[in-house]
Design a protein that fits this description.
single chain, about 110 residues, mainly alpha, two-stranded antiparallel sheet, 2 strands, flat
């Protein structure tokens, strides 16, 4: 997908290996394949190009603006949930994710 610059403005479909790496890397192989079959759809190529060039592009949209975050008056947290990938709400352990989010909301609502 990155080998063709025209994909920058196209909808592209990930093959299984990039999908596994990017979205299903924390779940078992059989679950990753099931998620790929159920959820992998063509999507805009732009975010893929932005993420791929994030280390060399100082103006990338993919970077986190920590200075801006320091001035954010809202309560924020980063929580790592073991064994969960980026497809948090469709993985087999989605209840762990939901419980964590609900706990956060209940503490600060």
């Amino acid at each position: 997908m990155l080998g063709n610059p025209r994909n920058h403005h196209r909808a592209i479909a990930l093959t299984y290996d990039p999908f596994r790496f990017a979205f299903a890397n924390a779940v078992p192989e059989d679950e990753a394949r099931q998620r790929y079959e159920e959820h992998a759809v063509p999507a805009p190529g732009l975010p893929i190009f932005q993420a791929a060039t994030a280390n060399i592009n100082p103006w990338t949209e993919a970077k986190v603006a920590y200075r801006k975050q320091r001035n954010n008056p809202a309560v924020t947290e980063i929580t790592e949930i073991a064994g969960r990938g980026h497809s948090l709400t469709s993985d087999g352990g989605w209840r762990d994710v939901a419980d964590t989010a609900l706990s956060f909301v209940q503490r600060f609502a």
